[in-house]
Amino acid sequence: MFHATFAISIHLCLEGPEVTQLKSDLDKQDGNLQYILTGEGAGSIFHINEYNGTIYATQKLDREKKPFYILNAKAINRSTQHPVEPQSEFIIKVRDVNDNEPQFLDGPYVATVPEMSPEGTSVTQVTATDADDPSYGNSARLLYSLVQGQPYFSVEPKTGVIRMASQMDRETKDQYLVIIQAKDMVGQPGALSATATVTINLSDINDNPPKFQHRLYYMSVSEEAPVGTTVGKVFAEDSDTGDNAAMDYFIEEDSSDAFNIITNNETQEGIILLKKRVDYESKRRHHIEVKAVNRYIDERFLKEGPFEDTTIVKINVEDADEPPVFTVENYVMEIVEGAESGSLVGVITARDPDEDDSPIRYSIVHSTLLKRLFSINEHNGAIITTEPLDREIASWHNITVTATETRNPEKISEANVYVQVLDVNDNAPQFSKDYETFVCENAVSGQLIQSISAVDQDDSGKGHHFNFSLAQEDTNSSHFIVKDNQDNTAGIFTGKSGFRRQEQFFFYLPILIQDNGIPPLTSTNTLTVTVCDCDTEVNIFYCRYGAFMYSLGLSTEALVAVLACILIFLVFFLAIVTIRQQQKKKPPFSEKMEEFRENVVSYDDEGGGEEDTEAFDISALRTRAVVRTHKPRKKVASEIQSLYRQSLQVGPDSAIFRQFISEKLEEANTDRSVPPYDSLQTYAFEGTGSLAGSLSSLGSTTSDMDQSYDYLADWGPHFKQLAGMYSSHRTAGD
Q1: Percent of the chain at pLDDT above 90?
Q2: Second CATH level (architecture) for the domain 430-551
Q3: Which of 351, 515, 634, 652 is the most buried (most CB within 10 A)?
């Protein structure tokens, strides 16, 4: 058998070509045995000495491409070519050597770490790989080191983790380039190496407070500037970026409270605005303190100090020619209604706020009505009435008054004056509405027939109170009673039982109404009571009807007769309308249709065809049994018949034809029985060119017996039967 070198792993070193040697126990070294090698790489990579079994490598092997080979070996007798040893398998493993340098597959690297991070903070990790065999020797064992980046960063030799070596400020330097080296063979001499670059960016944190560019700002604003005017801008710098540099501005000190400040989030500027009007004459300089505060503060850096800054802003007010200023913006005045013309309502006052103190001229503007009711003294501003005022027409008057500088008329100011007209008791109370009161003829004494109330146009501060009573001089005081309910209403009651319409149809009650004004006013209001033909309960509709009839002076019987006549007239009118509508529906030309129907003769005899000449008397067809009476419109018939006969021999362009058409047109225009709209008139007119002439007998002045039908025999075979019929008939007639 083969020695124990079979079925074992043989490690091949690349320094020498000899790999190993195979030897059989039966080999007597006499050259009778032959060694044969088969398998992966046999004959190409590996060769065997067939006499002594030595195996050689013919080319350089690379473990990273193929780490092992599986081969088969056997020994045979040269003479017999029979196997001396059975075939055995063995493996040749390629022993690794350090022939591959490390590689950073993910480089170059980019990492970010917050500024001011403490020492030892992990930044990132780099990793290198080595293609050599990590299980054999130190060829694949790597060691990391920092080539560039001290003293700010460090790297762990075995893991490649990069850490902060000191605190760094982004505002000083915001980016660093670090170079990391990886060596195999644990850094021993002869080791292979590779490097990678790591770009480390420092991210911003809020570690810097805002700082104003100036400790003192100077600004100015005109006293004419309206509210909201931009006075100026301030700016505080912050070395941080993004939200860490965001800030808000505040006004810390402003005794006049005349200014406001807002933040422009895009430019991070503080914009000072005018909060209310300033006055040069009142205060010429303003002093305010502005503060800038970081919007987002990192609590880790609070110990570094307050993240805010302050500055001083001095604002000068510029003088301007201002319009007059009223002592108050709105005036409220009072005057009693009815005050005589020229009464003083009140006085308004305006002044020129400037140093020159220009005189003021006053006037009333806008409404022409107000100018008619009020006037103003243009020098002292006194407002007086030009006529008495009535509170019931208008209780308030709104006046717009202007004040104008006499030296500069363009400077004008306006003020509102509200004039209240105070009420006096100058209007007597009246009925609240027009009452319609009825009393039944059979009403009993003490029966309520009407409740009344009153209104007063005057204004009563304590509320109105009215007293109701019946005038003492009333002649009907015995018939009715007025009872005051003490709640601004009163009831009208009957003072007796039974009323007669024939004696008195209307009662007029003078009712006195007194108010509680100072002095009290009294008015007399007449209540009309109508006697109604009813029992005790009033029917408003029936009573109104009775009153209406009474006003017309008609009795019930007379009214019924009038209504009956009206009804008969309506029936007669409707009948006439119906008859006329039926006449309109009658078809036109009915009279002509009747004429046509009169000329229709019906026969029930059945003929025998053209060959039957004995079945009926053809003369009956030619007999003019019906003689129509010509109407007046036919009095030109004879002339038309003559023209018609003549037209048979002429063409449509002849004078006879044109005369025929003209006369027909004249006849149609003068005929009143034709429809009122346009119509088509059709006339029979046979042109020239027919050898037979006209067969029509219309309008013929001669009878059939006077005519000769011999010419029918000349018309050919188609008229043979007709010619025979007429010829035989004429012969029989003769």
Answers
A1: 27
A2: Sandwich (2.60)
A3: 515
* DSSP 3-state of 133: coil
Category of 553 on φ-ψ map: left (φ > 0), alpha (ψ -120 to 50) or beta: left
Instruction: Note the pLDDT tens digit of each residue in 417-427.
Output: 999 998 888 88
449-to-504, 539, 541 alpha-carbon distances in Å: 17, 12, 16
**Which residue type sits at 473?**
E
In what order do the strands lie in the sheet containing 344-347? Answer: 344-347, 382-385, 374-376
Give the number of other Cβ atoms within 10 Å of residue 168's Cβ.
19
In angstroms and rounded to an integer, the radius of gyration of the C-alpha atoms of the chain is 69
Question: How many CB atoms lie under 10 A from the CB of residue 48?
Answer: 23
| CA angle, 709 then 715 then 720, to 5° | 75
CA–CA dist 72, 37 (Å, integer): 6
Yes or no: say if 327 and 349 are a contact pair by the CB < 8 Å rule: yes
Cα angle vertex 381, ends 376, 382, to 5°? 65
Q: What is the DSSP string of 537-603?
A: S--HHHHHHHHHHHHHT--HHHHHHHHHHHHHHHHHHHHHHHHHHHHHTSPTTHHHHHHHHHT----
- Fill in the amino acid letter for 311: T
Fold of 18-93: Immunoglobulin-like (2.60.40)
User: Hey, what CATH class is 103-203 in?
Assistant: mainly beta
Of 549, 538, 521, 554, which is closest to residue 435 (Cα–Cα)? 538
Contact assessment for residue 159 and residue 68, using Cβ atoms and an 8 Å cutoff: no
Q: Which residue, among 449, 445, 438, has the nearest Cα to 498 in the 3D structure?
A: 445
377 near 361, Cβ under 8 Å? no
Residue ranges of the chain that CATH labels 2.60.40.60: 18-93, 103-203, 211-318, 325-422, 430-551
Pair of tokens at residue 66? 């193929």
pLDDT digits (tens, 9 = 90+) for 26-54: 777 777 888 888 888 888 888 888 888 88
Instruction: State which of 597-606, 666-675, 688-697 shows the largest mean pLDDT.
Output: 666-675
Output b/e per residue, 135-160; b: 16+ Cβ within 10 A: eeebbbbbbbebeebeebbbbebeeb
| Domain range 325-422, CATH architecture | Sandwich (2.60)
pLDDT per residue over 83-124, tens digit each?
A: 888 888 888 888 777 778 898 988 899 999 998 889 999 999
What are 343's two structure tokens? 């009464």
pTM reported for the whole predicted model = 0.43
Spatial contact of 262 and 249, defined as CB atoms under 8 Å apart: yes
* CA–CA distance, 360 with 379 (Å, rounded to integer): 7
The answer to whether residues 71 and 38 touch, using CB atoms and an 8 Å cutoff, is yes
Q: Which two three-digit tokens encode residue 350?
A: 């305006």
Q: Where are the alpha helices (DSSP H) in 376-503?
A: none
Task: Return the sign of the alpha-carbon dihedral for residues 336, 337, 339, 341.
Answer: positive
Helix (H) or strand (E) segment spanning residue 733: helix 720-733
Tell me the CA distances in angstroms from 264 to 235, 254, 260, 271, 310, one per residue in order.
10, 21, 13, 7, 17
Indicate the average pLDDT of the chain: 80
CATH architecture label of 211-318: Sandwich (2.60)
Q: What is the dihedral of CA 576, 578, 580, 581, to 10 degrees?
A: 160
Specify the length of the chain in residues.
Answer: 734
Bridge partners for 431 per DSSP = 454
